[in-house]
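Hi all, posting the design record for the shared folder.

TITLE: backbone redesign
STEP: 1 of 1
STRUCTURE INPUT:
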């Protein structure tokens, strides 16, 4: 029996990196910090739990159409898998695991990082446009995460004397133009860098995208429903702190 569309709930699990278990550069995972770092073995366990519970993993493109009443969700429990910051180990480690289960993800791209032109974020390998193009060809959704990963709400304060409004527009427009230039389409989805959201920032985001996603801690299991504001989608930080018991409880809330 298919659940009423207006009562369905969709968790968005948000990762940043999927490290090899023996990766010496795996950062420390500290409670309360939104890092989204996991090892390959933990990531595989998460995907296996989704598969065994009968979840269909969809991209933001599907969720967008559902929220705008343009399509219904597939039958059965639904989840989204997000990856912020276009890190290379997502392509190398997460993509193959998700392929095994027929899952498709959504990657939110920092365009200057994909260009190889963001030194402050190039201490760890990143996905370039060729990698991102391959994911897009494989059915993944590519969203925008600004040009430089600046905290937008802080930029609006104008503490450095620079016009914050112009800087926000530049961050959004430059990212969109890069994705269009390199991948051939305009992104429809956005993720707020570092979860730095405000109503004023949202007022800029709505001009360029059809959905936007925010952050919640890995102990705050808030799901997305038919009544969720499309520009305030809730992503759950999914890190090494996400125990099997915690993930199981989250999935139970979304199942029916």
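Okay, here is what came back for every position:
SEQUENCE:
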């Amino acid at each position: 029996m298919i659940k009423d569309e207006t009562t369905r709930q969709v968790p968005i699990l948000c990762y940043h990196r999927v490290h090899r278990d023996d990766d010496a550069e795996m950062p420390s995972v500290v409670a309360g910090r939104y890092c989204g770092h996991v090892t390959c073995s933990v990531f595989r366990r998460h995907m296996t739990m989704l598969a065994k519970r009968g979840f269909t993993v969809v991209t933001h493109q599907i969720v967008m159409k559902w929220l705008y009443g343009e399509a219904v969700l597939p039958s059965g429990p639904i989840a989204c898998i997000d990856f912020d910051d276009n890190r290379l180990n997502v392509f190398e480690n997460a993509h193959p695991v998700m392929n095994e289960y027929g899952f498709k993800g959504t990657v939110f791209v920092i365009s200057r990082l994909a260009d190889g032109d963001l030194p402050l974020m190039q201490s760890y390998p990143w996905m370039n446009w060729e990698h991102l193009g391959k994911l897009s060809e494989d059915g993944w959704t590519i969203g925008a995460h600004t040009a430089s990963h600046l905290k937008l709400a802080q930029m609006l304060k104008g503490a450095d004397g620079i016009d914050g409004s112009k800087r926000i527009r530049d961050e959004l427009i430059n990212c969109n133009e890069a994705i269009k230039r390199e991948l051939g389409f305009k992104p429809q989805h956005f993720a707020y860098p570092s979860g730095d959201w405000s109503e004023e920032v949202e007022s800029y985001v709505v001009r360029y995208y059809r959905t936007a996603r925010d952050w919640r801690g890995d102990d705050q299991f808030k799901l997305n429903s038919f009544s969720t504001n499309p520009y305030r989608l809730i992503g759950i930080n999914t890190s090494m702190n996400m125990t099997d018991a915690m993930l199981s409880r989250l999935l139970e809330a979304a199942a029916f």
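COMMENT: The domain at 10-22+35-248 is CATH 3.20.20.370 (TIM Barrel).
Let me know if anyone wants the other runs.
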